[in-house]
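Re: weekly structure request thread

Next one in the queue (381 aa):
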Amino acid sequence: MQYVPFGKLGKDVSRLGFGCMRLPTKQEGEKNVIDRERAIAMIRHGIDEGITYVDTAYGYHNGESEIVTGLALKEGYREKVTLTTKLPPWMANEEADLNKLLDEQLKKLDVPYVDFYILHAMNKDSFAKLQSFHYKDFYKQALKDGRIKHTGFSFHDNRETFEMILKDYDQWELAQIQYNYLDDQEQATEDGLKLAGKMGVPIVVMEPLRGGALATPPANVAELINNHESGRSAVEWAFKYVANYAEVATILSGMSTEEQLNDNLRIFDTLKVGSMTEADMAFVKTLKQAYLSRMPIKCTGCSYCVPCPQGVAIPRIFAAYNDMHKFDRPGNLTWSYKQMVEKGTDATKCVQCGACESVCPQQLPIIDWLQKVDQAYQQIK
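Done, posted below.
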């Protein structure tokens, strides 16, 4: 296992972190629940092999993840790791709920404190909500009474919002972002990652494999990887790219099987900061272009087409359709599009007014594409 300094904490952390969002599961009646025996054994095996960072959250596995994570950290394992869980802003209806949630989570984990208690899935709106609940005062009290040791936030929004959050509080000790070689210009972006580094806020990366999609690439990408002289797997290329950044402390992996855990432990034995050569970087760019070439709709996500007068979520619809083709995963469309149908923002709400097409810099036939996406969804749902 490779280790790096963890920001201002004065200690090192393993490059591989155990993400407890995708633990092994089993069927119990009509419910899909965590296979506790396997999950506990996997978490402990990971720690025995050098993992020192464990990450969970209130909502993972329908609320079961924190309980199982706490059980796994019994018998001396708690003292071996940095433990992170997250404050769910959607569960807070008033300022007092911040303390109630933390106390509930400590009880579920069965620990007196967590090392990091971070604001979960921050975007512009959820952060404004926590600002109105005086999150800084909450942190001050929780730090003082010892229920938490460090602060941070996880993030899903744009580059501007990431910088705004970073600069709102001068005591951030961690920022968790989605980052991989396909998303390096999305959400926080590479510029945001580097800004956090300059501000002394270590980065914890989530989704380095894009939810597993980069681990099982489509045919054209797999051919490039299989023919590369290094012999590295798709998973190795994805992890190697993220591990190259000095700003990145820990890279989370949600491991569902013993095989995934052991493969990741093998890979992270050798991943070092700055180990990507110029040839390696060029090859990763080739992989990215191979994925992007699969996108049928050449939408750049500029959002000039929204707000739509009818509320149609045009960029999201196109992104879901492109993801289906990019990763050869129909589920990427059905999952996202179903949510839009439920919210009334799907393509069927289009009245073909043409307002979107008149402002599209790419001059896309948006109306035609909306119809095609809806037809594709109807065929595969």
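The two ends are 43 Å apart (CA to CA). The chain is about 45% helix and 15% strand.
Next request, please.
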